[in-house]
Amino acid sequence: MHETFKTFLMAGAALTLCAAVPATAGYQAQIYDLPAQSLGDALRAVARSSGQSIIVPTDLVAGERAPALKGEFSPEAALAQLLAGTGLIARRVGDALVIQRIGAESTQDAQGTGEGAGDQSIVVTGTRIRGRAPAGSAVTVIDRKAIDQSGYATAQQILQALPQNFGGGATEASYTTGRNGADANATFGSGINLRGLGPSSTLVLLNGERPPMAGFAGVFTDLSMVPVSVVERIEVLPDGASALYGSDAVAGVVNIVPRNTFRGLETSANIGSADGYRQVQASAIAGFAWNGGHAVLGYEYYDRGALAARERAYFSEDLRRFGLGDYRTAPGIVPVITAGGRTYVVPANQDGTHLTAADLVQGPGEKSDAWAGADALPAQRRHSLFASLDVGLADRLRFTAQGLFGSRQFDAKGRTFSNASAVTVPVTNPFYVDPVGTHLPVRVAYSFLKELGAEGTRGTSEAIGGTAALHWTPGSWDVSLSATYGRQREDIEIYNIVNTAQLAAALADPNRTTALNVFGNGTANNPATLDKLRGYYFTGGTYTMWSAALRADGALLSLPAGDLRLALGAEHRRERYLDPASDYYRTTLTPIVQPGSLNARRDVTAAYAELSAPLSGKSGTGLRIGQLDLSGAIRAERYSDFGTTVNPRVGLSWLPVDMVRLRGTFGTSFRAPSFTELQQGPGFTSYFAYPLADPAAPGGTTNALIIAGNDPDMGPERPTSWTAGLDFRPDASRGLTAQLTYFEIRYRDRITNPGAAAPTFLTNRAVYAALITMNPDPAVVAGYFASPFYANYFGIPASQVTAIIDARRQNLALQRQRALDFDLGYRFDLAGGAGEIGASGAYIFDYSQKLTETAPRISLVGTLGYPPAFKLRGRALYSNGGSGLAVFTNYLGGYSNNSTGPIQHVDSWLTFDVQLSHAFRNGPLGKLRVALSVSNLLDADPPLTVAKSTLTTLGIDLENASPVGRMVSLQVSKQW
Question: What b-and-e string marks burial along 513-523, b requiring 16 or more CB atoms within 10 Å of the CB?
Fold first, then answer.
């Protein structure tokens, strides 16, 4: 719920005091030291401090005074003190405390603000209607207090702790896997992957609006650009919501709400350290208010050093020390010569200037670890600036604007590829040695790591975005016209790679002074020669978005149980991605400019409608069956590049008694194909013939025509989801609370790229039968051979092709996921303070996939590259006076690793986070908060396993574990 503090001048308008309520924190007692003041100001202070939503018609508090409030109180107790003698009382209605006259019957909706709510009433993620929570949904809210309690320094770290989130995909740690779209994340950004359905299936909003997208072709939202210091709360709706928000809202919606109502000045710092790793964060936020307006300005600086792979023993290809085997493939430091079909090892500790064939020792030589000299995590440095403005222009007319700028520099020494490889040495090389006397070129396995250093990736990711809007409030309606602009630019340099053209020239150089010597330990090579070998190439791209929206919501008509409310909207968005020409010095003797590979754009036009209907009220109005609320929404979108989608959604909430809520939702969603998934032509389309293993063919081989690229008929992914839940909350301030949500997603037309598995199509026909055409029409084969996209790699004639393999990226997979989310908590009083114990988690019963309609179903849950079956975060919280203790447990269930042949079991992982904090109340240290936080208190190593992908091998699974280890951080914040 959006925090709002505004007194309306209209008679009968309502004052809504709302601060976010964390789903895992609750309403704890707080220390208050409030002077005697107006009742409205006192209620604002309690709402801000407690995190409790407070709703009151303004005519009830006009002219009322509140006494001083000193001591520790729950929200209910604090309001009882402030309202004493006023004839008013606080009554809990749903998640809010509603102020009303003693003896008055409330007709307000238990999930909303009631009638007369003004232009800044609550808008909860999952609905477009102010003052009403989305019927049927469970929205998790991580508020400012919970953010501070976590001790985390970035939005990605905060959201990674959610049990519903899976660490695979676009994160700075899992980029090495290449799975879940991680290969598009060349700038080490951080996305969120709810349900493990992919970062592109989770919609991220900034105060309800789409920010610019990151990654190649703009495929995820980069959370690293959001400064935590300006975040008021993070609302997470783990449910499909395309009926309201459009594409990507499949697994859920994450709405980051900034501190737009902040007043005063707050400065903060966070200094953290782990073994071989450190981070620094500093920020300031200021809020200014005047008659009819408010402005906020915030700045944050974040600097984190790289974590070297050598600091973590499991960040290696050589896992023999753990009993997991040796997966090294790169040449060792000592050169190895191959000639005459045999290998010869060069003696160590000699420079190669006087080497003879008699010095060589026949043998395989030693391999080297490709992670030697690399970084496990990149160095990151970020500057972020946020600003917001709210100005009253006239009666019932306001102007609002917000903007975010982020610039992040990154640098990571990468896993060695080209700097450790076999090179061909011609006989013209003055250091040439022929161990068998053939006088032919020899192959030498040689590592340049000791001379050139590790390859690396560095660059800048820069995002800027903003929204400006006019709000008109005729009566109970709110009408807004807004415009949004966003741009994210990524500039990437791959540096210190071996330039193959210069390498060949240096190896063929007959001059002993300038020729390259690969027969020794590298100490004799000319520095100028080595400098010529240092290649590089630049890449990157820019995603740009423009959008405009006209939205309205308000009361449509009065029903016995409350108002029937309606929201309508029309939106237009234009997206563009440009991969510009870039400098290139990798395979040429002189630097050149490479043409860009992608220049794509699309237009999206959408319209939606949402209806919220209170069918029955708690006071016996309407159907007289307890409180029953129904909501329905539908949204149609037309994409200029693939067509139209229409998605409905319905939700139902029922409170048969005060303490129990039953709820459910049903709807469809969609994910639009990305720019890269829709491209055709050069660079994206290719055909070639290839001999595939085929146990059914004579000789065991079939010549197949492989069709690669993108299906020109690509359409959107189309999931259907439904949820059913129960909330038990007899008293928000103490006692037992419970929240259970069962959900099921049936995901059809998932866009899949089967090309990597093409060599196994004919050996696994049951899975790929729909993609195989045996004995094709010769005319069809001849047409492919005549195409300009055909490449004759293997010299196979068209007459010998007896199969066509459709290995294009296309709408193929059918996925199903069934799971249970839960949150259990118990709040209590202890030794004059307030405590809570509880746990939230997610248990996945089923996550399975069929590649095609006729393919067998394969279970994915609990396997490498997919979410584990069970994930839990427990909590134990205690506060007394200004002091607090927070202990969190993070549990990840065990799973299977099938990436290396025989299935390996990966152990479960349990870690503890703890924070000690104290907030000073008075004196020169008043409004100062100091917190000492320790993540992974016991420094528990991640579970060991052979995590093998097409890119690398490691001793841990980075999609489910962090290599940081125990992190100790000191946080200091001060309000002035």
Answer: eebbbbbbbbe
Mean pLDDT, each 10-residue run in order, the chain (976 residues):
31 37 46 79 75 65 78 81 82 67 42 30 76 85 89 90 91 75 88 92 94 92 93 93 95 94 92 96 94 93 96 94 89 86 89 92 87 92 96 93 97 79 92 91 90 92 97 91 97 94 95 94 92 94 97 91 93 96 92 90 97 82 80 97 95 90 96 92 89 91 94 94 92 80 95 85 90 95 94 90 94 95 93 92 96 90 93 95 94 90 91 95 88 96 88 88 95 93
Extract the tokens encoding 480.
Answer: 């807004």
Report the phi/psi class of residue 785: left, alpha or beta, with left for phi > 0 and alpha for psi in -120 to 50. alpha
Residue 621, SS3?
coil
Q: Which helix (H) or strand (E) covers residue 481, if one does? A: strand 478-498
Cα distances (Å, whole numbers) of residue 60 to 7, 17, 99: 12, 14, 8
Q: Give the separation between CA 394 and CA 390, rounded to whole angstroms.
A: 12
Q: Assess contact for 536 and 497: CB atoms under 8 A.
A: yes
End-to-end CA distance of the chain: 27
Residue with tokens 């025509």: 705
Distance CA 773, CA 762 (A): 11
Indicate the pTM of the whole model. Answer: 0.85
Phi, psi of 59 (to 5 degrees): -70, -20
Alpha carbon 110 to chain centroid, angstroms:
33
Q: Which positions ≥6 away from 96 have C-beta within 8 Å?
A: 18, 52, 53, 54, 55, 113
Written as one string, the DSSP assignment of 383-431 is EEEEEEEEEEEETTEEEEEEEEEEEEEEEEEPPPSTTEEEEEE-TTSTT
What's the DSSP call for residue 133?
A: P
Domains of the chain: 14-101 (3.55.50.30), 140-308+378-414+458-467+540-544+573-677+717-750+812-975 (2.40.170.20), 310-376+416-449+505-534 (no CATH), 678-712+755-809 (no CATH)
Helix (H) or strand (E) holding 541: strand 534-559
Assess contact for 687 and 791: CB atoms under 8 A: yes
Count CB neighbours of 228 within 10 A: 26
**Looking at the chain, how many residues does it have?**
976
Question: Alpha-carbon distance 411 to 305, whole Å?
Answer: 9
The answer to whether the CB of 515 falls within 8 A of the CB of 431 is yes
Task: Give yes or no for a contact between 404 and 465, defined as CB atoms under 8 angstroms apart.
Answer: yes
Question: What phi and psi, each to the nearest 5 degrees, are found at residue 310?
Answer: -65, -15
Are the C-beta atoms of 671 and 200 separated by less than 8 Å?
yes
Helix, strand, coil in percent for the chain, rounding step 5: 10, 50, 40
From the list 18, 25, 226, the residue with the least C-alpha distance to 124 is 18
CA angle 75, 80, 86 (to 5 degrees): 135
The three-point CA angle 669-673-677 to 5° equals 155
Coil/strand/helix, residue 832: coil
The label of the residue with tokens 């992957």 reads 193
Asked whether 955 and 946 are in contact (CB, 8 A), the reply is yes
How far is residue 480's CA from residue 485's CA, in Å, rounded to a whole number? Answer: 17
One-letter amino acid at 126 equals G
Phi, psi angles (nearest 5°) of residue 49: -75, -40
Cα–Cα distance measured from residue 333 to residue 1, given in angstroms and rounded to the nearest whole number: 60
Find, among 168, 165, 167, the residue nearest to 180 by Cα: 168
Reduce the DSSP state of residue 19 to 3 states and report it. coil
Pairs from 431-434 (Cβ < 8 Å, separation ≥ 24): 431/352, 431/353, 431/355, 431/512, 431/515, 431/517, 431/518, 431/519, 431/520, 433/337, 433/355, 433/356, 433/357, 433/360, 433/519, 434/339, 434/357
Quote the strand ranges of 154-218, DSSP E: 202-206
